[in-house]
Request: fold
Amino acid sequence: MGQPPVFVTESVVPAEKQPTRYSAGFWRRFFALVIDGFLISIPSFLIGSIFYDFFSSSSGWASIVGFVITLPYFAILGSSTGNGQTLGQRWTGIEVVNAQGNHLSLEKSTLRYTILLVPFLFGEAGLPSPLAWAVGLAGAAIVYLYLFNTPSRQTLHDLATGSFVVESPAVGIVEERRPWPGHWAILGLLGILSLIVTPLVTRTGPFPELLAVQRALLDTAEFRDVGVMLQTVQPSSQTGLHLTVVCKNRPADYEKAGAQIVAVVERTDPQAAKRDFIAIDFKEGFHVGLARFSRTRTVNHSPQHWEDITRAEAN
Reply:
């Protein structure tokens, strides 16, 4: 008598019965980002150091070059090509997937990391005001949602691409949790407030009478940024002007450059020559990708000493 036929059937597990993957916690994501930031900063720092004069005087090109260096690292490793894990994510046991638990395509991973990187790499690129506002608001939204969208820890670039950062290794669909609608209302309010407050802060300040000095120096087209404040030094109670300038080109002689600045200051502010001192901080450095380097050269003299330097240069 023959054996009865054996029927093999393929069991299909309903979606609701499939294993569920859970979102990675705050600290895992944080430490992964710190590790990745350190690793990708190494080539950015080397390039910034080699071409220091160029990048210190061109924040726009520094941002572009930094973006070109940084994006491929995150986009490629964070996609299906790199199994959804940068080196930092691999070492902290997390990975990037979509709602079905699959790794992102290279195109979607590129979009995801573009949204993440642009606000932080182009913040100092001297963008036009409307674009700078949009980039700044995107950066604020990324940080805000990362901190407060606790159910899924999805932030702006995750929500835009339908991605999740989950614990690894694991399989299955992702436990989806929609963000609280109130987050969008809060972010909208922050955006409106920034439109109102930023122009007011820019136009006024703690010492409005010094804005003429700031404008006069910016009008020379020699500086990318200028700050002016009154300073009192204790215990001597000496009062003077303290300027912070970011030059478009690094001065060959800081004393000479300082004397030229003081000449503009004294023409604009008649009280400047009566101060006890005029101090100038020359700030310089570069911000290439996630690598940042800065240093400050300070020159500080009495108004009379500055006049002596100017006369010596003239002779």
Observations:
- The CA atoms of residues 213 and 269 lie 7 Å apart.
